[in-house]
Design brief:
Elements: E1 10-13, H1 21-38, E2 42-44, H2 53-56, E3 62-67, H3 69-75, E4 85-93, E5 100-101, E6 103-108, E7 123-125, H4 132-144, E8 152-154, H5 160-168, E9 175-178, H6 179-188, H7 190-193, E10 196-201, E11 205-206, E12 209-213, H8 218-230, H9 234-237, E13 242-246, H10 251-266
Parallel strand pairs: 1-2, 1-3, 7-8
Antiparallel strand pairs: 3-12, 4-12, 4-13, 5-11, 6-9, 6-10
Helix pairs in contact: 1-8, 3-10, 4-10
Length: about 280
């Protein structure tokens, strides 16, 4: 009998939350520690902007990579699925109610607005149309709250860091920022973050997941999960504003995102043009 083929080497990537060079270095250190603690070799790979983050999720060799919960749960009923991934773990951000996050709706620190209604005729931005924090949570919040009519839509801005840059440079008046990414930017890019202030916050939802490719060896993934859940080294966690990791929340927690998205689409809010008083600006 011929020998069994060697398993496909697994890769790790924290593109979603590598919001600053120091944060990227901290993720690399954490992944190396998890690889050592689990005995599962991980190759840390780059997938930098402008490569679409969705292309990362299609890789067949993922061991640990962050994925937004909304495209994950939206993809589950599809056959064939666009993203053949399985959840491994979820981070526990410091200051959050468990493995959850929300969207900070930010304006420039000197903007006179004190509520959303003060932004009548303003410019609103978004990151990506398949992002929970950067689009769908914003859309749901505007539908469920007293919201103004905006004059322009600016996007895709693509990343939380670029959102803060757009606000700071005056290219947009209001835009959404993933609350955990915002915490990392406040820690590692305080000058940039200080240009913005939070005007409103959306309801918390389940955190993005660390996922692996669906074809990965389940025994190896169990070892990676155990190493993440057991991780309690402040030197690794504090630079990432984390308390630790936990097993993923039930799928129903992520299904809430899709339920809200479908409700928004039934209301006609397929994109942000529902909230416009004028034409869309790409």
């Amino acid at each position: 009998m011929p020998p069994a083929p060697d398993p496909v080497p697994l890769v790790a990537n924290a593109r979603m939350y590598s919001v600053a060079p120091a944060a990227a270095e901290a993720w690399d250190a954490l992944f190396r520690a998890v690889s050592h603690g689990s005995g599962v070799p991980l190759e840390i790979v780059a997938h930098p902007f402008p490569a679409p983050v969705s292309e990362l999720w299609k890789r067949r060799d993922l061991g640990l990579a962050f994925m937004c919960g909304w495209p994950w749960v939206r993809d589950l009923p599809r056959l064939p699925r666009t993203y053949d991934v399985v959840p491994v773990a979820a981070p526990l951000p410091d200051g959050a109610p468990g493995p959850r996050y929300w969207t900070d709706l930010v304006v420039h620190r000197d903007h006179p607005a004190r509520s959303l209604m003060d932004l009548e005729g303003a410019r609103i931005g978004y990151t990506l149309l398949d992002s929970q924090s950067g689009f769908s949570a914003l859309r749901h919040h505007l539908l469920s709250a007293s919201a103004p009519r905006f004059a322009e839509i600016v996007g895709p801005i693509t990343t939380p860091r670029r959102v803060l840059e757009a606000i700071g440079e005056g290219r947009v008046d209001l835009a959404p920022v993933d609350s955990y990414a915002h915490a990392l930017l406040q820690r590692h890019e305080p000058g940039l973050a200080a240009q913005c202030r939070v005007l409103a916050r959306t309801e918390p939802t389940a955190m993005p997941l660390l996922v692996a490719s669906g074809g990965a060896d389940l025994a190896l993934l169990a070892r990676l999960q155990a190493a993440l859940v057991a991780l309690d080294d402040p030197a690794l966690l504090e630079p990432l504003a984390l308390l630790g990791f936990t097993r993923p929340l039930p799928q129903a927690e992520y299904a809430v995102m899709e339920q809200r998205a479908q409700a928004a689409e039934r209301a006609g809010a397929h994109d942000l043009t529902h909230f416009l008083q004028a034409r869309r600006v790409a």
